[in-house]
Each structure stands twice: as C-alpha cells, then as structure tokens.
Write a structure and sequence with these properties.
This protein is an alpha/beta fold. The chain is 48% helix and 18% strand. It has a single domain (2-218), classed as Rossmann fold, CATH 3.40.50.1000. It contains 9 helices and 7 strands. This is HAD family hydrolase.
C-alpha cells in the first residue's frame, strides 16, 4: 500500500472552498455584506501572499460559524454544496483520486480549511480520510467558534499528517511511495517530505520552486 495525499482548494477544486463559503454567506444575506466581505477578501489576499496568520483567520471563520444554531448552519451548508461545490467538481479531479484509490493507496485530503466546511466536500469527492482544522463543538453540536489543537497549514500539515498516520499504525517513511498534490507554496513543507511531490495547478511561487527541485507539475483542470 502506498500513500496519496491531496490539498483541496485549487488542487482538487478549481476554487477556494473557505473563501467561497464566505462569499455564499454574504450573497445569501446571512452576514453583514460590507463588513464580512472586506475581512474575507483581506484574509484571502494574505493567504495568497503567504502572510496569513492561520489562528487569527480560523478564529474569524469559526466565529462566523458559531453565530448560527447547528440545524440552520447545516441547511445553509447543504445549499452551499448544491449551488457552489457540486458544480465545481471536475471529472479530472475525480479520475486522479480514483486512480490512487483503485491502486489501493491510502488516500486523504489535507487542508487548512476547517473540518466543518470541508467534510461534506470530502464525502462528495469520495475520500474517506480528511485532515483539517478542527472546530470545537458544545454538547448540542453547535460550533463554539474556537479551534481544537493547532492549524493544519504550512508545517502544521506535516505534524497533523504524521499524527493521523500514527493513529493508523503507519509512519510517513514507512511507505515506499508517498504522493502529495498541491497548488500552493504554503504546502512546500509537506511536499518536501513525501517521495513524490506533485505541483498541481501551481501558483507562480510553487511552480518556480518545483522546477528548481525537479518536481513534476500537473495542470489538472484542462478538461
């Protein structure tokens, strides 16, 4: 058995699910448009520049989720999946996932986006294992707005991936072949510790880094 890890946003999806969730909340009137949209765009620009403070962002994102009782939040997420995510799922991404799954690879999505937003997306993509930022919930299942543990961003992806593998009785080094597909230079730490890093729909910084290190590049959304 080999290992296949995938970033989510702009890797398996041609969009950023966290950003689009925020835009969905604005569009449907669930949050104040002017205030939320400005902060959401500011954080997205910081992410693209590699300057985002992940804890600060997650507290903002999870604090927004905590405003809504869980039944209302879940109904909103179902609408988000139907209107935004499902139409964005591409055959090329599904084919790449299925190729690894059919080969018997242990497959997981490793994303900095929180687990509440991404768990239904992982299910829609047919991926059982998800490593994502974990929101705290109360006894009734409502989100509290707090983060459990540490962010799954940058070097944090390496830490969380190793912890996940340890729970399954594996180590990263125990796989003969380990793949990680990502679009972002923010994921260079995890790309650097697998045997087969693949710059997937890479941004300019990752594309340059990949070329310098002899990593292959993949343009997944040409279908």
């Amino acid at each position: 058995m080999n290992l296949a890890l995938f970033d989510l946003d702009h890797t398996l999806l041609p969009l950023d699910s966290d950003y689009e969730w925020g835009q969905f909340l604005v569009r449907t009137g669930a949050v104040d448009a002017a205030e939320f949209d400005a902060r959401n765009k500011e954080f997205f620009a910081q992410y693209q520049a590699g300057t985002l403070d992940p804890v600060q962002y997650l507290e903002f994102a999870l604090g927004t989720l905590a405003r809504f009782p869980r039944p209302q939040l879940d109904a909103m997420h179902r609408q988000f999946m139907a209107e935004v995510i499902q139409p964005a799922i591409r055959p090329s991404a599904l084919a790449l996932l299925r190729r690894h799954q059919d080969a018997g690879d242990l497959t997981a999505i490793v994303t900095a986006t929180n687990q509440y937003v991404t768990a239904p997306i992982a299910r829609a993509l047919g991926v059982e294992h998800l490593i994502a930022a974990m929101p705290e919930t109360d006894a009734a299942g409502n989100l509290t707005g707090k983060l459990l543990g540490t962010p799954t961003q940058g070097a944090g992806k390496v830490t969380h991936t190793r912890a996940w593998l340890e729970k399954l009785g594996h180590t990263l080094e125990g796989f003969e072949r380990s793949h990680f597909y990502s679009d972002s230079h923010n994921d260079i730490p995890l790309l650097s510790v697998v045997t087969h890093p693949v710059a997937t729909n890479p941004n300019a910084t990752l594309k340059t880094h990949a070329a310098a290190h002899g990593w292959p590049s993949l343009d997944l959304f040409n279908d």
